[in-house]
Amino acid sequence: MSAASKQDQSEPKESAGAAEHASFAAAFGRTLERFRWVEDPSREELAEELAESGARELYEAMGGLVLTPLSGPGGMLHSYWKMHLALGLVKQHELERGRPFDWIVLSRTDLIWVANHPPLSLMDAKAVWIPHTGRKHDSDGLDGLCDWHAAVPRGLAEVYFGRWLMLVQGVAPATPLHNPHVFLRNVLRVSGAPVGRFPAVAGLESCSHWSCFASWTRKDASNWRWSGERRWAGHRLRAWRSWQWHVGYNQVEVLGSG
User: Fold this and answer.
1) pLDDT means over runs of 10, the chain (258 residues)
2) Is 110 in contact with 204 (CB distance < 8 Å)?
3) CA angle 182-151-130, nearest 5°?
4) Which residue intervals make up region (Disordered) (predicted)?
5) In Å, what is the CA distance from 111 to each residue of 33, 114, 185, 203, 251?
6) pTM
7) Which of 162, 161, 139 is closest to 151 using CA atoms?
8) CB under 8 Å to 56, separation ≥6 — which residues?
9) CA pair distance 109, 91, nearest whole angstrom
């Protein structure tokens, strides 16, 4: 049995998740069609899945944060595994309703938004649309792309949500000391998926009430993870009294009038 088919047929360990389900239902109401709460696979289970292709040692030799928690503190492999499961829920719902979605949006639940998301109608359905934060890890260059949020056309969903399967199958485009942002850039690039950009009008919430990789970043009493993040998000709206989204070539911009 191939690693891919083994993963598709394996059943993750279930947990109750009643409180989390209730929170999602309260937030999304009747639009919530599917919810699944699963426990993270153990380090041993992750290692077994990745070993079957024979590429795990190569990935480990590359270093970086992509293989956490196998390579150190973190949970990126858990994130990629859950993206794979989420796409499975999408496919199940598409079969039941008899037609595919046009777009699939991935978004971290700890993002604070200062403006509405740009309309999907403005976005080219041939590109994966990613907010541009202006941070080093989101440079459109060698430092990678932001992996906090993405609007993904259905035709490119297998690429964006397929990072776990690429690792399991031994075909992931690994590079030395790569981090999740570089890994995302590499995956989209080798898959030929164009990238569209729009100003990031959201920032991460402080993780002072739970454990996260960036707990040390909290510097003030606000709910924002980085000091000044709210101000930066506001600046991306150009601080105009009125504003609207405008589409350009693979870029959605904010236009406003004084």
Assistant:
1) 43 71 91 90 95 92 93 92 96 95 94 85 90 75 89 97 97 93 95 89 76 56 67 56 52 43
2) yes
3) 40
4) 1-20
5) 22, 10, 21, 5, 21
6) 0.82
7) 161
8) 47, 50
9) 22
69 upstream amide cis, omega within 30 of 0: yes
For residue 106, list its beta bridge partners.
150
CA 238/CA 234 separation, integer angstroms: 7
What does the chain come to in residues?
258
Taking a C-beta distance cutoff of 8 angstroms, is the pair 85, 36 a contact?
A: yes
Q: Rounded to 5 degrees, what angle do the CA atoms 90, 84, 16 make?
A: 80
Helices (H), 137-228: 157-160, 163-169, 180-190
Beta strand 149-153 with 103-107: parallel, antiparallel or unpaired? Answer: antiparallel
**Cβ atoms 112, 224 nearer than 8 A:** yes
Is residue 21 within 8 A of residue 28, CB to CB? The reply is no
Token pair listed for 99: 């037609």
